[in-house]
Specification:
Helix 3 packs across helix 8 (181-192), helix 4 packs parallel to helix 13 and helix 13 runs antiparallel to helix 14. Strands 1-2 form a two-stranded antiparallel ribbon. The protein has one domain (10-422): Amino acid/polyamine transporter I (Up-down Bundle), CATH 1.20.1740. It has helices at 10-21, 24-37, 41-65, 71-80, 83-112, 120-137, 139-166, 181-192, 212-241, 244-248, 253-298, 317-330, 336-364, 383-396, 401-431; strands spanning 377-378, 381-382. It is mainly alpha-helical.
Length: 432
């Protein structure tokens, strides 16, 4: 079988990770977060950074052991020797990738109407189609596109930071002011964690990274730290420009901050930057989803046809086509806040399992080579993954019941697919 092309080094992979994290979430959700946490919204982002770093360290250790596409699937399968459990985690990753790509593409359509009066759904479909072509052309081309877009979207957030710390304040800001105290900070933290997810998809391009056992752990840690610092600075900056009550009622809080600092022209420029940020999120979500689907097909958990690699571009072209078509289908529906919560619920479950995998492997396979090891251990026992597991479980039970039910419904559909597909595979083997 043909292999994927290794075209990513430390810089491109780190930028890929930063691009994954600095996506649509910060542009959409920071207003609602300030409504919950007030001026103390920065504390929610600090908590988000810590939890993301815990999970990132676990991903770093596991990727240094198993640098494979379909990473979470591979981690779980090796730790628990259970195909069904591994499939469910992989299924969650694939489905949430497609839902997120579709929903964020709709967000692109909403911003794009400020420039051209094109129906939002049409803009979303065209965007998914164009970015799927970029995905097909090759990982090197995709990573360069991502790098350029990441620099542009980071510049937008840096612009917000500069405006926030240079504009004259009408009065000093009390950074500990919160309408509902620490409870509001915790609720805001659960909501804004959507802005941190994405770095976990870095491990799904492992087979396209040079020296993955060494580079992936470094890139994950760098991406989480860079993004976390930018987020905290943005959250400190915005409440210096606009009070948290007004931010909470704004549909485009960061654009309003830029408008306050640079007038209407600045607002238009920032809307353009937001388009790049959203485009970047869709691109890298499509890349990650197709690699997960490809890896699981290669492991016989999805139809074999999805494991086909194009002879020229060295990309999983059938998986790319399927991800594109289903994402386009999802683009006809969706509310970004609801889908953000569904996505975070699925990711939180995955994070809990990944942290658990690190703990299990420390005891079941203590002698396996680890190019990177999570720090702070008591004997064989890793302390930080235990904290990560506990926080992930806590976050999972904080969602509204309808979000939890939808998440469980996605898992149930995956279980049904697994049973039907495996029954059909066994029947085909008997017939042959």
């Amino acid at each position: 079988m043909s292999e994927l092309k290794r075209g990513m080094g430390l810089f491109h992979l780190t930028m890929y990770g930063v691009g994954l994290i600095l996506g649509a979430g910060i542009y959409v959700l920071i207003g609602e977060a300030t409504g919950l946490a007030g001026n103390a919204v920065w504390a929610a982002f600090v908590l988000g950074s810590i939890v993301a770093l815990f999970a990132g360290l676990s991903y770093a250790e596991l990727s240094s052991i198993f640098p494979k596409a379909a990473a979470e699937y591979t981690f779980v399968k090796n730790a628990f020797k259970n195909n069904f459990f591994a499939f469910i985690i992989g299924w969650l990753t694939v489905i949430t990738s497609m839902i997120t790509a579709a929903t964020v593409a709709l967000g692109f359509g909403g911003y794009f109407t400020e420039f051209l009066n094109i129906p939002i759904v049409i803009s979303a479909i065209v965007l998914i189609g164009i970015l799927s072509i970029v995905n097909f052309i090759g990982i090197k081309e995709s990573s360069w596109t991502n790098t350029v877009f990441t620099i542009i979207e980071a510049s937008g957030l840096i612009l917000v930071i500069i405006i926030g710390f240079t504009i004259s304040e009408p009065e000093p800001v009390n950074y500990f002011e919160s309408p509902t105290g620490f409870t509001g900070v915790i609720i805001a933290f659960v909501l804004i964690f959507f802005a941190f997810i994405g770095f976990e998809d870095m491990v799904n391009v492992a087979e396209e990274v040079q020296n993955p056992k060494k580079i992936i752990p470094r890139a994950i840690i760098l991406a989480v730290m860079i993004s976390g610092i930018i987020y905290v600075l943005v959250s400190l900056a915005v409440v210096r420009v606009i009070n948290w009550e007004d931010l909470s009622s704004s549909s485009a809080p960061l654009a309003d901050v830029v408008k306050r600092g640079l007038s209407t022209q600045g607002h238009a420029v920032f809307s353009g930057i937001a388009l790049f940020a959203i485009t970047n999120t869709v691109l890298i979500t499509l890349i990650a989803g197709s690699r997960m689907m490809y890896g699981m097909a290669r492991e016989k958990s999805f139809p074999n046809i999805l494991a086909k690699i194009h002879f020229k571009t060295k990309t999983p072209w059938m998986a790319i086509i399927v991800i594109m078509m289903i994402s386009i289908g999802f683009s006809f529906i969706g509310d970004i806040v609801i889908v953000a919560n569904i996505t975070v619920f699925a990711v939180v479950i995955t994070f809990a399992v990944v942290n658990l995998v690190v703990i299990v492997l420390r005891f079941t396979q203590p002698d396996i080579e680890r190019k990177f090891k999570v720090p702070i251990n008591i004997g064989k026992f890793p302390v930080l993954p235990m904290f990560g597991l506990g926080i992930s479980v806590y976050m999972a039970i904080q969602f509204e019941i309808d979000v939890i039910l939808i998440g469980l419904g996605i898992i149930a559909v995956g279980a049904l697919f697994y049973v039907i597909f495996n029954r059909k595979s066994l029947q085909n083997k008997k017939d042959s």
